[in-house]
Design brief:
4-stranded antiparallel β-sheet; about 500 residues; 4 helices; single chain
Amino acid sequence: MKAYHRLIFISIMCLIFFKGHSQTGNTVGVTELTTEVSDGYTFFSPFSGTKAYLIDNCGKLINSWDRGTRPGLSAYLLENGLMLRTYKTPVEGPFTSASNAGGLELVDWNNNTLWKYEIDTPETLSHHDAVMLPTGNILVLTWELVYRDELIELGRDPDEIAVENFMWSERIIELEPLGPDSAEIVWEWRIKDHYIQDFDSTKTGYGVIKDHPELFNINLPDLNSSNSNASRDWNHFNAIDYNPKLDQVLISVRNSNEIWILDHSTTTEEAASHRGGRYNKGGDILYRWGNPFAYGTLEYDDQQFFGQHGAHWVTTEGNYTDQILIFNNGNRRPPAEYSSVEILSPPEDSAGFYSFTPGNGYGPVTAEVLYGNQTDQAFYSPYLSNAQILYNGNILINEGSSGFFFEINNEKDIVWSYEVPLWGDFPVSQGDNVIQNAVFRVYKYPADYPAFQGKDLTPGETIERNSPPCSLTVSNSEVKHNQVSVRYISEINQLVFS
């Protein structure tokens, strides 16, 4: 234990010494502001705090929500003016992850709880993310325990089962909110219904993965994951999104470095099978991309995603409408770790199915990189993070591990940047060093977003103390991304919260 605390202390000291900022101006809050910034308000809910914030382009507070619980992990502003938020319940049990949730809530502008529901039992826990459907129902990521006997029957190699003799199996549920604190499950999907294995011909799901890319190999070797719970948490879903035009669900599967698309038009019974629904594939995977090695196609070196986060369909009008945006964190990316923001357009065949070519897998061959490389746009956020294409074509990028987000224009110049001025829930002053200011996701909403109708948007003070007056500049100053500081923050978070 002494060595553990010594490591944390050394990490913090290195962080304080090395953490870099822009060379002039603010050290926290708004560190870059130009006339090319998009008009709107930025929303975020820090990983280690209990509050959510809405700020203007000067970093002045428009609204805040003090919830008394840490996020678990996502929070959004809905068009109806409510905040959909996941939150952490006081879990004591088998789920030992920094990504635990347990609770969901809908909160109004004035911080009143209109609905809350907890998915927290000894064998089931919600985690990471949730998304509201046009019907008002909510899709939620959950874990459920699957024990040794069932795992062996499903074809898992007994020698590869974790010492706890269970795994955290992924389950997606659709909730219909009822009353102020209850809900009904109206649809569900389970990964354990879609395994394949070539380990034991006498067990369930025996087959060859390369002939069935619509399934997941329960004995997938070497997940190449830095997640400390990978022996139990094989998939680690960290994002969910919904496409109402297609009635499809998008999942980010961190531990196999992929995104998946599932058919939501199925019944629960069909979702547990391989037939039914609009695409007549039941709950099997309609499309997957990022790591063809995971489904037996191509080689390990063809991996494209590395611990990705924040996958979602783009809804803003423009060049990338209906394509999939991903923050590719770059964990263990060869030859050097760096992050990138990438856009993907899944190809379809003439019948409207996602194209698959035996021997080559699902297309396209590569995604389009919108920002991030090893040289002039180098930055690295090993955990958390997301990106968002804004109404004017700018891109908001959340370097989540270090609590730093920035907006770029079409020329990939930084036109606005912000360093979260918090140490947990406590504001800091200009010149102070900050840690524990990581952010899972950041969103920017245009000034005419329906949620703001009838709301008082008068700016208050900045979150940080002693901030100078806000002013626009025409030119961009270089904003430093200090990879040393990002690494130390991620290691501290992993040590303390994993």
